[in-house]
Amino acid sequence: MNIRRRGTKQGSAKPPSGEPAKPARPVVRGLALGLLVAAGLAAVAVGFRWFFAVYDGMGAYRTAPVCGTAAPTPHEDCVRGGTGRVEAGRVLSDEGNRTYLLTVSRAGAPTRELKVGEAFYEDVEVGSEVELTVWRGRVAEVAHHGHRARTLRTPVLTVIALSLLVGLGSALLVQRLVEQPVSVPASIALNGGWVALFVVMGGGVLLEAQWSFALTLGLAVPGWLAGAASTALIFPDWLERRSS
């Protein structure tokens, strides 16, 4: 006797209603996690590479060869000596900290304001002749009667840009490795902004100091790790307390 049940096909029985759906496949979730972690690490690596490119650029004039007799060009990879004339000077005061600036003119180039030390500033006057070291069209050092000052300025906008990149990469790592009590965009903005602030302040100091590569690397990496770790340790509990 052949009895067929209505609406049922052999080999395709559906689970009873109310049975919980199967969770997402662990392989897919693991792949997504791995991709985000890889993206975060890549962003941090690119940011660090960018930082050390700026570091090298600011100190490369010290080992660059002396230019020949050819006419100078804006981006030549050699140093030229020259002289300049002090046109003016001023002192900026900010909460007890003083910055000493000299306005120096030189032939064939715009007048520039150069930052020097206090002893240097006190030893010159308007009309004094100073010695200049020119690198890629910019004054890299100024000297006078034994005083010497490095005058290449830190590219602030570049430091901010690379700091945001490192912050974004760090935020992706923290977002995937530590549970956050806020939405993903809010977590990335908060964690990334905090790490970027660490990098801006620490990176600016390291670029200005121009210490050895080993020392700079030895301070930069732990500094970044401290900033990233602080977001994972501090912000989740702090945000959870505020929301409760």
Architecture overview:
It is elongated and about 75 Å long. Helices cover 48% and strands 21% of the residues. It has a six-stranded antiparallel β-sheet. The protein has five helices and six strands, in the order H-E-E-E-H-E-E-E-H-H-H. The chain folds into two domains: 37-58 and 155-243, no CATH class; 67-150, OB fold (Dihydrolipoamide Acetyltransferase, E2P). The longest helix is centred in the first third of the chain and has 34 residues, at 26-59. It has helices spanning 26-59, 118-122, 156-177, 184-209, 213-243, and strands at residues 79-94, 97-106, 109-116, 129-135, 138-144, 147-150. Helix 4 packs antiparallel against helix 5 (213-243). It has 244 residues and is α+β, with helices and mostly antiparallel strands.
- Shape assignment: elongated
Averaged pLDDT, please? 83
Q: How far is the first residue's CA from the last residue's CA? A: 67 Å
Oligomer: single chain
Question: What topology, given as strand order, has the largest sheet?
Answer: 3-2-1-4-5-6
Largest sheet: 6 strands, antiparallel
Instruction: Give the helix tally.
Output: 5
SSE string, helices as H and strands as E: HEEEHEEEHHH
User: How many discrete structural domains?
Assistant: 2
Radius of gyration: 29 Å
| Beta-strand proportion | 15-25%
What is the SS-derived class? alpha+beta
> Uncertain segments of ≥5 residues (pLDDT<50)?
5-12
Number of strands: 6
Q: Roughly how much helix do the residues carry, as a percent range?
A: 40-55%
